Amino acid sequence: MTINSSLESEMQCDLSIFEPLGFTTNGLVHQLRKDVQEVFNSMAGIKNILPATMRIVAPIKSFEHSITAMIGLAGTYDGTVSLHTPMNLAMDFTAGMLGMAVTELDDDVLDALGEISNMVAGSVKDYLSRSGAILKISTPSVVAGDKYRYLSGNQSDTLTLGFTSGAHLFLVCVTVLVKQFHNSNSRH
Is residue 134 a part of any domain in this protein? Predict the structure, then answer.
C-alpha cells in the first residue's frame, strides 16, 4: 500500500466528543488499538498486529494496490470507520479467517475485510453509545484497486491509526461528525 500523507509524532484530531465518555485522547487511542488487535486475534488468529510507531495526522487520500472496507455511522453522530490494507496483507488476513491458503483477490477477501471493519465499527459504536448516543452502523462497503482515492472527513474529525503485521502497514480510520441541526423555518 502506498500512503501519501503527513506523518508526525502527535495526533491533531479533535476527540472532544469522546470526553464525556471518560476517554482521554491517549486512552481512546490505547483502547482502539487494543480492540483492533483483539478483532484480528479472535477472527483471524493473527497475533502479530502491532501499533505502528507513528500517528497519522491528515486523513489518507490516495491508495495503491489496496483494499478499503468501510462502515457508515448514522444517528446522533455521523461518520465512518474504515480499514485500509495492502491487497497481499488482506489475503493473509482472509487466510487466517478461513484457515486455508488464499492466493487471489476474490469475494472471500472482500467479505473478510468487510467483516473485520464491521467488528471495529461495533467497538466505536459501543464507545459512543455509552453517553446515550443513538447510532446505527451500515453494512460494509469494500473497494479494491491498483490506484484510487478515498476521502472521509478531515484532519479535525478523523482519527487515523497505523498498525503493522510483519513488515506491512495498514490503517484504521475513525471519522465522527457532530450533526449540525438547522431550523428549516428560519430566514436567512
Answer: yes
